[in-house]
Amino acid sequence: MNLQQRINAFVKLGDFISQFSNEAIQKKDNVEHNDVFFDGFKHQLKLAEEHNGWFTQENIKFALNGWSNSLTLENLTKWLQPYNLKVSSPKKVVIIMAGNIPLVGFHDFLSVLISGHQVLVKQSSNDKHLLPFLAKYIEYVENDFKGKIKFTEEKIKDFDAVIATGSNNTARYFEHYFKGKPAIIRNNRNSIAVLNGKESTKDLKNLSEDIFRYYGLGCRNVSKLFVPKDYKFDAFFEAIYHWHPIIEKAKYANNYDYNKAVYLMSEFDMLENGFFMIKEDKSYASPIASLFYEYYNNVKELKQKIEDDKNQIQCIVSHGFINHEIAFGKTQNPQLWDYADDVDTIAFLLAN
């Protein structure tokens, strides 16, 4: 199986996924093997939500929309063009996946297979319905993938390299357990936004997408604001108010009530609007239904602080503040070449 065959297979997967990526699921006539897979994947979406209340149909479809947009011939070709993807000796690569948002480990899965290696996947119990089904589809459209994709719940052994994602605690365990093997080990990161007080209502509305999408559970979700001293939050609260129906979701509402009670009992100063709280705090990781903020006086000093803390930060949302910043509202729409933790997965796979 050559590179173009692998690319073509994932383009077909993107076509298949596109049927489930809009508000209304719509079966298309020109998608291969729909008679075998369409109804089954529709059922997997339902099972995924039943198993994990954070995986609403809206959020699952949002994730699928992102992948259907990415898995095009143009995008895959552009992504892979800089690399020499001739693998003479395929490796068995373990991927240990997180389960915070739907298909969060798909980029690693794609990277291993598209570069010509075999993959052994250990999924999170929170996200175990979608990827195995898509793996079956990719095997069906390209028979040479059969035998190169395996899922396991057993102890990991007999492998050549590993990509593992988890909390700070599990990352330390991974580093010890996989010592001596080529590895990418990812731990907790959060995303930030730097405001200058001149943002438009549209900017702030777009920022609310970065905050609330997936209930704030992703590492690309903004969980911390840096704002100029004496910043007034009135415009911010007004711009995010269209997200107020989120409080109707029971899991979110329970977290809101609990965290609000903790803040009140601890007598922390906070601002809230009935579905969301903001609190001044130097930490980067804010609880669900809340956002931390910190004032700054000097842009140069703030840039140095962010550089010093870069291992805690995934994305920086701003306008004209720093290189490699992300536009308001775009954190949950990464391109294939936007690597987690800024670690080039394809380069890692080609080197090991």
Portion in helices = 25-40%
Form type: globular
The CATH homologous superfamily of the largest domain is named Aldehyde Dehydrogenase, Chain A, domain 1
> If classified by CATH, what would the architecture of the largest domain be?
3-Layer(aba) Sandwich
SSE run: HHHHEHEHEEHEEHEHHEEEHEH
* Average of the residue pLDDT scores: 96
CATH topology of the largest domain: Aldehyde Dehydrogenase, Chain A, domain 1
Distance between the termini: 20 Å
Protein structure class: alpha/beta
State which percent range the strand residues make up: 15-25%
Give the class-level CATH name of the largest domain.
Alpha Beta
Low-confidence stretches: none
Task: Tell me the strand order in the biggest sheet.
Answer: 8-9-10-7-6-11
Rg from Cα:
21 Å
The tally of structural domains comes to 2
> Total number of β-strand segments?
11
GO molecular function: acyl-CoA dehydrogenase activity
Organism: Wocania arenilitoris
Protein name: Acyl-CoA reductase
Keywords: NADP
